Amino acid sequence: MLEHRPVASEKKQVHKIKLACLRVGDGFFALDIMCIREIIRPLPITPIPKAPPFIEGVIKLRKSVIPVVDLRRRFDLPVTEQDRQQRIIICAVEGRMIGLIVNEVTEVRSYERDEVQPAPIILQGRPKSFFRGFAVRVSDCIC
């Protein structure tokens, strides 16, 4: 009798996710690269009167007006002076474009889906909406 050996298409597919690792203040976070449209150097920002403190204003990018959120302010972290590593991440959130100011984009890493665990139950309410999951590799410092 011949032994059945699975061909490549029959092997269990490992689902991977690519995350852009970024620094916000002293913390390291990540975004799914599928929601990122582009990463740009800071542009002039037009302030919006009476906007929440974490809304820096809007930028004009290729004939589009995009609101910009400073993630340091959004997470109640100290805001530092702009430096060479600072970037604006243009991403799609719920079908709308938004810019996110971060201190630095460090790298893109691949994770297997089972390496990203759901946010802990202790993060109920508003804080949980910022964090969909946490990477579980011991060597990683991102969430």
Question: In words, what does this structure look like?
Answer:
With 143 residues, the chain is mainly β. It has one domain: OB fold (Dihydrolipoamide Acetyltransferase, E2P), CATH 2.40.50.180. Helices cover 6% and strands 44% of the residues. It has helices at 71-74, 126-130; strands at residues 16-24, 27-32, 36-40, 55-61, 64-70, 87-93, 96-102, 104-112, 116-118, 133-135. Strands 3-6-7-5-4 form a five-stranded mixed sheet. The longest helix is centred in the last third of the chain and has 5 residues, at 126-130. The radius of gyration is 19 Å and the shape is globular. The model is unreliable at 137-143 (pLDDT under 50).
Which helices and strands appear, and what pairs or packs with what?
Layout: E1 16-24, E2 27-32, E3 36-40, E4 55-61, E5 64-70, H1 71-74, E6 87-93, E7 96-102, E8 104-112, E9 116-118, H2 126-130, E10 133-135
Parallel strand pairs: 5-7
Antiparallel strand pairs: 1-2, 1-8, 3-6, 4-5, 6-7, 9-10
User: What would you report as the Rg, rounded to the nearest angstrom?
Assistant: 19 Å
What is the residue-mean pLDDT, rounded to a whole number?
78
Biggest sheet, open or closed, and with what strands and sense?
5 strands, mixed
Q: How many helical stretches?
A: 2
Low-pLDDT stretches: 137-143
